[in-house]
C-alpha cells in the first residue's frame, strides 16, 4: 500500500494518507486524521474513472470541516435532542453544537482526531481509536475500529466495531457526499436518480429532531420507492422539507433489523454509474447537501455549491436513545458491537 504524509495537525501530529487499490480501476484514499475518506475513483460505462466523493484540496480545511466531508462519525452520528440522554437511570449532558441539540457527537468529534492504524493491505485498512470515559460526554472507556475495504465485487465496504467498559451509545456512520458524475463535474447531484427501500420515515420537529412518529412516504415528496431525482420536489412546501431546507431525513428501512440488506440506490444516467447501499442498520439519512456553502473550494481547486453531493448515512434513527419505541443504539459493557455498510458500484 502506498502512503504519504500530507501535513501536520495543529498539535504537530503527522497526517498520513493511504491509497487503497481495488479491481476494475477502483481506488480510494483515506487518512489517519478522523479515519476519513478522501477520494473514491469509480469507472463509468466507458471505463473512465472519476473521483465521485466531495472533499477539500487543503488539509487545513479538514480541521474544521463543517460539511463533514468523508467523515467517519463515531461514536454517534446524527442528532440527539436537547443534547442529553438518560441511560441506566443517569442523565448525560452532551455538547450543544446544533442549536440546543447534539450533532455528530459534538464540538470535538473523533473525525477531527488522529486514529491509530492497526492493519493494512493493498485493498484494506483498519483504523482504531481509544476513547476515554466521558470524552465528548459519552460514558465508557471504549475502543472503536473502522475498516475500509475495496472488494473484488466493486464495493467499498465499511466495517465498524465498538467495545466499551460501560453501557453507552454506538451509532457510527460515514458522511461522504457522492456525485456520480464526478466531484468536479461542476453541477449538483439533484438530477441523479435515487431509490430508497423504505415505506416510512421519521417525522421531525423544525430542528430535525424525530419525535417518535413514523410517517408513510406514499403521497408525499418523501416517496423514493420508485427511482426519481431530488430536483423536482426538494424545495416543495411540504412541511418536513421546508423545515429542513430540503432532503435531510431518516428513512425506516424495509428490512429485518440487524440483517444486511439493501437500503438505497443512486444512478447517474449520463455516466452510467450506479451505486447501491447495503447495511445491517435500521435507518438511513438522505442528506442532499442543503448547507454546502456556495463557492466552497474543493479538490483540485474546483468550486462546489449547494446540493453538489448526496450523503447516504446508514444509522440508528436520530434521537433514538430518547425514544424507547425506536431500535436502540446501545453498546453493552464488555460486548463487542459490529456493524457494516457497503457501497456497491455497477454501470448501466
Automatic annotation (TrEMBL):
Gene3D superfamilies: 2.70.98.10. The keyword Isomerase applies. It holds the Pfam family Aldose_epim. The keyword Translocase does not apply. It catalyses: alpha-D-glucose = beta-D-glucose. Its EC number is 5.1.3.3. It is an enzyme of class 5 (isomerase). Keywords: Carbohydrate metabolism, Isomerase. It comes from the Bacteria. Pathway: Carbohydrate metabolism; hexose metabolism. Belongs to the aldose epimerase family. This is Aldose 1-epimerase. It comes from Roseburia lenta.
Amino acid at each position: 500500500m502506498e502512503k504519504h504524509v500530507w501535513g501536520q495537525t495543529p498539535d504537530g501530529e503527522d497526517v498520513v494518507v493511504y491509497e487503497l487499490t481495488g479491481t476494475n480501476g477502483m481506488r480510494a484514499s483515506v487518512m489517519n486524521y478522523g479515519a476519513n475518506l478522501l477520494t473514491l475513483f469509480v469507472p463509468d460505462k466507458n471505463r473512465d474513472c472519476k473521483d465521485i466523493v466531495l472533499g477539500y484540496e487543503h488539509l487545513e480545511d479538514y480541521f474544521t470541516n463543517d460539511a463533514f466531508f468523508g467523515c467517519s462519525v463515531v461514536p454517534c452520528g446524527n442528532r440527539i435532542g436537547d443534547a442529553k440522554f438518560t441511560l441506566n437511570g443517569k442523565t448525560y449532558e452532551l455538547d450543544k453544537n446544533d442549536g440546543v441539540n447534539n450533532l455528530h457527537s459534538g464540538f470535538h468529534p473523533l473525525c477531527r482526531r488522529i486514529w491509530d492504524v492497526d492493519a493494512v493491505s493493498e485493498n484494506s485498512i483498519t483504523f482504531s481509536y481509544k476513547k476515554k470515559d466521558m470524552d465528548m460526554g459519552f460514558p465508557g472507556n471504549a475502543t472503536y475500529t473502522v475498516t475500509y475495504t475495496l472488494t473484488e465485487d466493486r464495493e467499498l465496504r465499511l466495517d465498524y466495531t465498538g467495545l466499551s467498559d460501560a453501557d453507552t451509545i454506538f451509532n457510527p456512520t460515514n458522511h461522504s457526499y457522492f456525485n456520480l458524475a464526478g466531484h468536479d463535474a461542476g453541477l449538483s447531484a439533484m438530477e441523479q436518480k435515487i431509490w430508497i427501500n423504505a415505506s416510512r420515515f421519521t417525522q421531525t420537529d423544525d430542528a430535525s429532531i424525530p419525535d417518535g412518529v413514523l410517517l408513510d412516504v406514499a403521497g408525499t415528496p418523501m416517496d423514493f420507492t420508485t427511482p426519481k431525482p431530488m430536483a423536482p420536489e426538494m424545495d416543495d412546501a411540504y412541511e418536513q422539507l421546508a423545515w429542513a431546507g430540503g432532503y435531510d431525513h431518516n428513512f425506516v428501512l424495509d428490512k429485518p433489523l440487524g440483517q444486511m440488506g439493501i437500503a438505497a440506490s443512486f444512478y447517474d444516467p449520463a455516466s452510467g454509474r450506479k451505486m447501491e447501499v447495503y447495511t445491517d442498520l435500521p435507518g438511513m439519512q438522505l442528506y442532499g447537501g442543503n448547507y454546502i456553502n456556495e463557492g466552497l473550494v474543493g479538490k483540485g481547486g474546483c468550486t462546489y455549491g449547494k446540493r453538489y453531493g448526496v450523503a447516504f448515512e446508514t444509522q440508528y434513527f436520530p434521537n433514538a436513545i430518547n425514544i424507547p419505541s425506536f431500535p436502540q443504539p446501545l453498546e453493552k459493557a464488555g460486548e463487542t458491537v459490529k456493524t457494516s455498510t457497503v457501497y456497491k458500484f455497477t454501470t448501466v
